[in-house]
From TrEMBL:
Residues 40-189 form the SGNH hydrolase-type esterase domain. This is SGNH hydrolase-type esterase domain-containing protein. Pfam families: Lipase_GDSL_2 (PF13472). Belongs to the 'GDSL' lipolytic enzyme family. Platelet-activating factor acetylhydrolase IB beta/gamma subunits subfamily. It comes from Drosophila rubida.
Length: 225
């Protein structure tokens, strides 16, 4: 059985139950707030919440960010199965997870991502699901960067034709001409600085705004009962 597709809670190895506490806070947010957009994922989007670009572009869109730093595909899947998307009806779910599945093959990670997509669809039949590409990582070209690129291609191919599921490339401008990544864009060559965040968030914001505006138009054109 593919471990990337088996819902799994993060073990409490530190003994402080932080991961479960964060998960319960997200469930509470679902009961108390009415978001148009929910971000689900790992460290990439967790750190984005503290950037200037996030505050400028995404706070006005009524977003909730349910991302946890070290999550893998199986951990997000567990969270979805255990209440992370209950009592809420967002127009869009943005899913970004897989870069932390370092010990799994590209095919396994892609399958885990698709298991998350299926579970989101089960929970939220009417939501639009956006899948931003996994970002390159490491200062210089390396096998994990290659694997993330392979995962992106697999997911793009395997989601073709799925209703209201769309992949979007967000890595433009991160890799320089010599193949390196600058610490000005990724401070640890994995997570984004304010400068790097602006590069990936602006095109994502444009797409989210387009989808939200189209939803508004569809609602306006729907005859009342």
């Amino acid at each position: 059985m593919n471990p990337c597709s088996v819902p799994t809670a993060v073990p409490d190895v530190d003994g402080d139950k932080r991961w479960q506490s964060i998960h319960r806070r997200f469930i509470s947010d679902c009961r108390e707030k009415d978001p148009d957009v929910i971000f689900l994922g790992d460290c990439i989007f967790e750190t984005l919440q503290d950037t200037d670009t996030w505050n400028q572009l995404f706070a006005p869109l009524h977003c909730l960010n349910f991302s946890i730093r070290d999550d893998c595909t199986e951990h997000v899947l567990w969270r979805i199965e255990n209440g992370a998307l209950d009592n809420v009806n967002p127009k869009i779910v943005v899913l970004h997870v897989g870069t932390n599945n370092v010990s799994n093959s590209a095919a396994q990670v892609a399958e885990g991502l698709l298991a998350n997509v299926a579970k989101i669809r089960e929970k939220l039949p009417g939501a639009y699901i956006l899948l931003p590409s996994l970002l390159p990582r490491g200062q210089q070209p390396n096998s994990l960067r290659d694997k993330n690129a392979e995962i992106n291609e697999l997911v793009k191919e395997q989601t073709k034709g799925l209703d209201r599921v769309q992949t979007v490339a967000i890595d433009k401008g991160l890799v320089q001409g010599d193949g390196s990544i600058s610490h000005h864009d990724m401070f640890d060559y994995k997570n984004l600085t304010n400068t790097g965040a602006k590069k990936i968030l602006e095109p994502l914001h444009d797409l989210l705004s387009q989808i939200l505006n189209e939803n508004e138009l569809e609602r306006d054109l729907t005859p009342s009962e």
